[in-house]
């Protein structure tokens, strides 16, 4: 979707810009927000929206400092802070504007909770929201009343929605009828003779699951099954061994209603028990109990005894450690043989994993040591929003006072009547001028400031461990290339680490708090 400007539109745009150039330096700064889902004959074009908003800005005495144009974007699905252009202004460039102007409320938001979030953010940041075709202006009495009403309704709606959803799921779990949710693999939703939603067996999935069971009973590996199922088209090309095993072990294949079993650190499902203590049946079974039990025993026989699942996955510094040759992520692989269990760091594209690097823990420790040498003494800084309104008020007070004293010190002024009053006034005037000169002009602007958190990154990472360091390194774009070199007559390769640090790493390390993290 592209905005088409006619000659008349461009002429009006130039006229509006000439009028804007005459505004004083301290004129309010306006950001224009333009949004459109689909351009049709009935919609207001992006060009019309922008021109109307520029006219509104002229009427309000505002200088347009930017246009956030998000086209082909649904306001229902994408809130303002997640849109490509408007989101960048809200999250990173908020000191640059004072007001957000939009053509109509539904061009800005379509969900009450999103509007409530934007109003709360605007009040916190000292911004104003103005709609051309709706009575929304946070500086007016009507606007303030509207804010109170919207905020109250949004809180009630959020609480009611949460209660309804929780209650519905709790109720649905106890019913034999299928009410809500996505069916487990092997089933699809259908309707019975009365029009009620029921679960039915998916023929393709039934065929794939029974074939996989036969292969498991023959001792074939899950990797072999995945290759065959993907090649046959019975399961999707994104199928993994873990997904296949999880599907085969799901008790939903017995026709039971299931829920996630959060104990044990693995993604497993368990049957939901009814009031009689027996599993609740919601569908015809794909496997009999004997078939399901024999399938589980066959999978157990081939299952490798893996250590307990570590939070965040087996590989540490995932996305930070890269193969120097193929540039793919280094991941931990476990090999079992008669001599024991071995852990290796391997890549994805090099032959044989690029000669796996043994002892991943030692590589982690070397990486930590290298990072601490370079970045350990950097201070932990948090980006905070600093408003200049109070400083601007102080500057105006001083300027008004200085103007008053200068006027009264002119011939005939009240401070020139006696020598004493003149000296006192001159002393006070010098003091006011000194206070005005001492104010840094930058502090009068709305701006981002980096505030020292009181600790270094060495201390921060000592408290948070490798997980905290890995998160920060990945966030700021620091990478470490791993080179493995074959050593004659030695099985394990020589490992060399090369730390890649962006030039602006100091600025990237600044922690940027998300104003919209708690938004619904």
Automatic annotation (TrEMBL):
Residues 184-305 form the Recombinase domain. Keywords: DNA recombination, DNA-binding. SUPFAM superfamilies: Resolvase-like. Pfam families: Resolvase (PF00239), Zn_ribbon_recom (PF13408). Transmembrane segments: none annotated. Gene3D superfamilies: Putative Large Serine Recombinase, Chain B, Domain 2, Resolvase, N-terminal catalytic domain. Coiled coil: none annotated. This is Recombinase family protein.
